[in-house]
Amino acid sequence: MTRSAANENASPWLPAEDREKARDQKMEAVQDMALTLFIEQGYHHVTMNEVAERLNVTKPALYNYFRSKEDILYSCWMSGHERLQQRISAELGAGGSGLSRLRRLVRVYAETMTTTYGKSLVLLDERDMDDMNRRTILARKRDLDGVFRALIAEGVADGSIRPTDPRMTAFAIAGALNWIGHWHRADGPMTPEEIGEDFALRLTAGLEGKAPIVSE
Amino acid sequence: MTRSAANENASPWLPAEDREKARDQKMEAVQDMALTLFIEQGYHHVTMNEVAERLNVTKPALYNYFRSKEDILYSCWMSGHERLQQRISAELGAGGSGLSRLRRLVRVYAETMTTTYGKSLVLLDERDMDDMNRRTILARKRDLDGVFRALIAEGVADGSIRPTDPRMTAFAIAGALNWIGHWHRADGPMTPEEIGEDFALRLTAGLEGKAPIVSE
DNA sequence: TATGGATATTACCCATGGGTAATCAAAAGT
DNA sequence: ACTTTTGATTACCCATGGGTAATATCCATA
């Protein structure tokens, strides 16, 4: 009542925008809640009923915003990827040696992995999606792997990283980073920035120098 | 026919043993087949019907060997853990510096991660199990983490590993190792031994020396 | 105050798949 | 030869949970 009174004489075009914005916000709320539950309990243990209940609506209401449960899953992954990609692009824009760029990639990747959307990249399973969506996810995962390998190769080429196999190096680094999604808890002892800083150095500490790694 | 002829005059007590052995083999066959499918498709996409079909039996036959689908899942994880634990114990029996023992742990862990049972430790989800089994799994995972941390702390204490936080170091190393379960394919370019050797050096390359890692 | 579009609810459908009951066949024990 | 045990089959049950149809409500607009 107070709300309608405040808007009583407002332009009649504004509410239309508001309604659209409200719709987007609701869609996002559905996605956020679903993702939180997916991460907590695992996709298959979360029911559409539970997602709805937690949002104080009933199940069919959700289908105003997503066509299916799988559609939400796919959206979650894609949103996570978009956010990560955004931060990577912003971070890698500036130049520097291959090693220093790799360090920045590791830092921002690690930080992102501590967020719910970052974790979605690791904790949601593309096998729960249909063929088309799964193919998209796999392509993006390959791209991400390519970024690591390219940066490592770049560092080897410019001499900032000792000669090493980009494929295995990328696997090792990406593995350590992705694992963050499994062990990180929001109430843990380190902030995302501290984790990022730690990993940025830790995961590249063995890459400096000129000589290749060999068994002694 | 040839088979029965060969055993015609054998002791009547032997078949009893044979039957027990046959039973164990069948139980193992069920577990192996289920695990293979779990790894390939994900637990929730594998039906008991499919497991049975692939073994040329019908679904109820499986329930002669396991009480439930979840029981198979738990058994798979535990078998994987047992095999890993076995190899770790055998490997860490001999002495050496903390660093060299950590290297041996990494090597044997990486090798194990390329096997179906090794992958089960990472690709099967304890959230699909009931409370009791889940608690057991989580306890064993904590133990495993403890082995890494203890070895790292040992190396720092004896001077073979530069001062570093055992917790984060263990997370980084275990992450890289566990990730093998996600990317490894049996038809890949490297043998398990080569992967083990590579990782043993790669994941410990940054740990040598005396000075702690600091941002330059 | 009437209209229509958007959004929510109630009540329902139904495919899926884990698990079981009744039964049967074959081998083991006596 | 007979009975019992083991292990497999056929046929079925039924809880779960994603998704939908019909309907109601709200609200801006005319």
UniProtKB/TrEMBL annotation, chains A, B:
The keyword Transcription regulation applies. Residues 16-25 have a biased composition (Basic and acidic residues). Keywords: DNA-binding, Transcription, Transcription regulation. It holds the Pfam family TetR_C_24. This is TetR/AcrR family transcriptional regulator. Residues 1-10 have a biased composition (Polar residues). Residues 47-66 bind DNA. Residues 1-25 are annotated as: Disordered. Gene3D superfamilies: Homeodomain-like (1.10.10.60), Tetracycline Repressor, domain 2 (1.10.357.10). Residues 24-84 form the HTH tetR-type domain.
